[in-house]
Write a structure and sequence with these properties.
Elements lengths: L30 E9 L4 H4 L4 E6 L12 H4 L5 E3 L1 H13 L5 E4 L5 H13 L6 E5 L5 H6 L6 E4 L6 H8 L4 H16 L3 E2 L5 E10 L5 H15 L4 E5 L20 H13 L4 E4 L14
Parallel strand pairs: 2-4, 4-5, 5-6, 6-8, 8-9, 9-10
Antiparallel strand pairs: 1-2, 1-3, 7-8
Helix pairs in contact: 3-4, 8-9
Length: 292
């Protein structure tokens, strides 16, 4: 994980971020953060009663046309911080009572985050660390984080390459994301919870339902049950809202229909999956999008 020849993610741009050159993700040589706060809208086992200590990183290695956080992922809203400031943010969230430290879209800052987490743990950070990722990861990057991350929270967005390319500009998305979630599972296994039902360690895969993409969703659920384990925890998300550039694509310019949602929930059980969370369609409101 070298910023002088950046190949952190599947894009493998090979550029020198320390030399001021920016690759596909547009990230520089310092961590850029848009927001850090207690976040109450993650899965119940993550937000609990005191909130998840979310740190929202700016920039992204995907270009999702429907991104709810487009202000920070695509428009780079936020400010650069030092590793010392990152440590202070983590410790402050712990002091506020957060259940965990939730690293939102961390991939392109992985080597910096790795050093920051080491420093924070030396200064008393004891909360579980969540790696909240879009799934477009390299196994080698994840292996370098082994032992520092307690909870992996990846998206598994697409099964079909054409769909991933059209909506997120991602080449070979499922090829990389499927290997990534398997490596995450190898590191942390299925979730373990405390007596209050708060997740302390493990993998939780997220899948966002998109309108008209039921077949892609079905294939993803099939793959998880077949290639990983029917016991894997999956969060099926119904929050899709046509924001950012989604309105330029007629097939995405609507919310997920109840029939589509119910079909996927039924299919979830039909393929043998039985652990996870089902996010209701009432979450498909712009009011649930964080204010940056």
């Amino acid at each position: 994980m070298n910023l002088d020849n950046c190949k952190i993610c599947p894009w493998e741009c090979g550029i020198s971020r320390t030399g001021g050159i920016k690759g596909f993700c547009r990230a520089g040589e310092k961590i850029r953060v848009a927001k850090a706060a207690l976040h109450y809208w993650e899965e119940p086992c993550l937000s609990g009663t005191r909130g998840s200590g979310a740190i929202f990183f700016s920039n992204c290695n995907l270009r999702c046309i429907f991104c709810q956080n487009f202000e920070i992922s695509q428009l780079a809203k936020g400010k650069e911080i030092s590793l010392e400031q990152f440590v202070e943010i983590c410790l402050d969230l712990q002091h506020q009572g957060a259940h965990n430290i939730n690293l939102v879209s961390p991939t392109h800052y992985a080597p910096l985050i790795k050093e920051g987490l080491k420093m924070a743990k030396q200064r008393g950070l004891v909360l579980p660390i969540i790696y909240n990722s879009n799934g477009y990861e390299k196994v080698e990057t994840l292996q370098a984080l082994a032992g520092l991350v307690d909870i992996y929270l990846p998206d598994l967005k697409y099964y079909t390459d054409q769909v991933a390319k059209k909506y997120s500009q991602a080449d070979n998305y499922f090829f990389y994301a499927s290997q990534a979630v398997q490596e995450m599972f190898r590191q942390v296994g299925n979730p373990r919870f405390d007596e209050e039902g708060i997740m302390k360690k493990g993998l939780l895969i997220r899948h966002l339902l998109l309108p008209g993409q039921e077949q892609d969703s079905r294939k993803i659920l099939e793959w998880i049950a077949r290639e990983m384990s029917p016991d894997v925890y999956v969060s099926v998300m119904g929050q899709y809202t046509p924001v950012f550039r989604a309105k330029e694509y007629p097939e995405l310019n609507r919310r997920v229909a109840r029939e589509e949602y119910e079909d996927i929930i039924e299919y979830f059980f039909n393929v043998g999956l039985h652990n996870g969370f089902m996010q209701g369609l009432d979450s498909a409101e712009e009011t649930f999008i964080p204010d940056f």
